[in-house]
Each structure stands twice: as C-alpha cells, then as structure tokens.
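Weekly structure sync, notes
Attendees: PL (lead), two postdocs, one rotation student
Agenda item 3: pending single-chain targets
PL asked that the sequence for the first pending target be pasted directly into the notes so everyone works from the same version. It is reproduced below exactly as submitted, 432 residues in total.
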Amino acid sequence: MHTIATDRPSTAARFHRLSTAGMGVFVASQCFTLPLLAAGPSWTLWQTLPDLVLWFSALCAALYLKPLGTASQRQLWQGLLYLGVMSVLALGVLFIYNDPLLGTELRFGAFAIYRLTQVLLIFWTASRLEFTAPLLARWSTLAQAAFVVTCAGIIFTSFSGVPVLFLGEHLPRGLGVSGPWESYYLYQEGGLGFVGFNHGYTGLQVMLLGALVLYLRDRLGRAGGEWILLLALVATFLSNSRADLVGCLVFVALQLLRFPLRAAFTAAGVGIVGVIFWNTVAPQLGATASRQATILDASDPGNLAGRADIWQSIYDGLLRDPSRLLIGSGLGSATINKGNNAHNMVLQILFETGLVGLVNVGGFFVLLMTLLLRAGPQARVIVNVTIGFLVTSITQETFFPNVAFGSFLPLYALVVAMALSSRTDTLERSAA
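Predicted structure, written out during the meeting:
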C-alpha cells in the first residue's frame, strides 16, 4: 500500500493518475455496454467494457491512501455503506423463509450485492479524485462523445435495419446460456442502440449522460446546451421506453424552467425540426409512436403492459403475510416468486426488504437530495435528472440493483460523487 505521506509521492501520484484515467474511460465507454467477456457462471456476470474499467480503476485507487474529498461525499458514503449492510441482511432473510426456489433467489440476491459493490467502489474511487479544471474539460469532451454516440446508436438501430449479430459472435449462444442477450442479437429490436437488451436501461442511459454533459458544461462556465435536451428527448422517444420518455420530459421541463428564454427557443426548435423531418420519418415510426402515445392514457390498465396485475398480486401477497410486509421476502425474491420484477420501485423494495427497507431507502434518498441541493446551482441539473428518474420508478425499478439496467447505477454514483465535490475545487486546484 502506498501513501502520500510515507512513500514516494510519485508512486502514489502514479496510481492516482491511473485511477483518474480509468474513470475517464469509464465515462467514455458508456455508449457501448454490450458484453465483451463471457466470464463467470452466468450471463449476468458477463463483463462489459465499463465493468472491466471499473475494476481496474478501483484497484489502482486501493493502492494509495487518500481520504474522501468533501463532507458531503463522506456523508453519502456512510449512507451507501448502511444500504450495503442492509442489503446483506436482506439476503439473509431468504434463509428465514427457505422458499422452494431458494437457490435461484440467492443467485438474484447475490447479483444485487455484486452491483451494489460496484456502486460502492466507484463512488469511493471518484470521491478521492482531484477534479481540476483540465480534468473536467477532458471529461466534458468524453461525456459529450459518449452521449452523442449513444443517441446515434439508438437512431441507427431504429431506422437502419442493419443487423448487429456480429457484435455477439464471440459470446456463448442459446437461451439457457445467454439469457436476454440471445433475443437482443436475434431479434434486433429497434431503439436499443448498443447499450443493452432493456429499453428502460437505454432511456436511462441517455438521460444520465445528457445530464452529465450539462453538469460539466455548467461547472466549466460554458453556456448553452439546449441541443443536448432536444437530442435526449428524441433518443428516449426512439428507445421505446414510455417511463423514460415521461421522465425525460420532466427533466427537460425542469431544466428549461431555469432559463425561460431558452425554453422558448427550445420549443421553437422542436417545432421546426418536427415540421422538417416528420414526413420523412413518420412512416417508420408507426409502432414507436403508437406505443409512446399510450402515456396520454396511463390510467388505462391495458396500457400498463400487465403491470396493474403484478402490482395487485404483490400488494395482496404483502397484506396476507405481515412478517413479509415488515422485513420483506429477501433480496432477490421478487423475480422468482412473481415471475417478474415489481415494475415499481416502492413495491420492489417492499416485497424484498419490507417496511424496514423502504424506510431506510427513503431516508437515503432524502439525504441524497438534501446534499445535492446544498451543492449549489451547478448541481441543479443532477437534482432535476434525479427527479426525472424518480418519476420513471413508478413503472420500473430505476434505482434497484437489477440485472436489466447494466451500469446505470455505477455511472449515477460517479455523477453524484462529482456533483458533491467542492464547488471551489476546480478554481483552487487550477490556480495552484
């Protein structure tokens, strides 16, 4: 272990630079999160480029000693550790009930712990970085490139019709082996881009990368960025995720309310672009437009893709068993017992961790939002996109560590760690 105080500064600095470079690659690689390495006993552990870079960066960070940067980062770190401990305890709850499918539940629960471990590692690593002005400028370029490529991939897979089967030729095949990745490569659903097999994850990635680009522009004192909001709306629409489209609309509205004049120009821009391109793209958007139009009548159970029945089933099951309502059925139990996730963040937490877990997760989000609001006006874009994410969680498990949402939570942890870094950090260190 190298320390800045007792070892040669160059050694610790070298590991710090490697960790910083790794985090930059992690940001840039968010536009391509398909599996690269079929490692582990299950497709759920197949490694993507962000996964591999995350392990590398965390290892480099572990080889030098440095405390977390700000009081806000330390507070949230304690909250994350508390959630991690709670999750391990929730995994142990599975043994209390000893359901017939305990083995399968344990595998899903273990994956949730695996994903939470990634979140902890990346927040810890990022909170120890030196966010200088040159670093923020480089990351701004990388984030913008990742955002544009992500959106371009969604547009490409929506209209081109060109198969991307070759991207998965190096992976094992078969439904029992590759799980949902098999359908991704076989059926080539439009709007998924090169992000993952889940439409919800694709839309979340667009929103988060767009918010990161805007945050970095604000922190560097760069004006504008309305085109980012427009492109994010187009990409989330094409992603075929209704929840993410609504969440993105909320995010965009909150952003534009900060700048009324910009809002007027943006609305005019949307209208002009729509008139110019509608006749060209409309014939190819029939299914997508029909699906997204159902958000205008969200109260119709037929437009919820079976979610109303899932919610009712979980609700009835919790009322029948007070012990499960109190402590949950155990981490990883929802998919196995109900055949699917809850498609609602609150119900997912209630089913797996009970009222105890719901209170703790709720308290964590109160802490998170409080710290982000204290971080100043530059962090307001992260507040706004988080509100958009919370809206999406009405019909999906946005902040729950499930298999379908890939590296969304680790990337969000990196963005939050950056937002909670000192607002004067950039100027002080660049002037030094």
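Discussion points:
- DSSP finds 19 helices and four strands in the chain.
- The chain has one domain: 2-131+159-177+247-280+302-427.
Action: rotation student to compare against the earlier draft before next sync.
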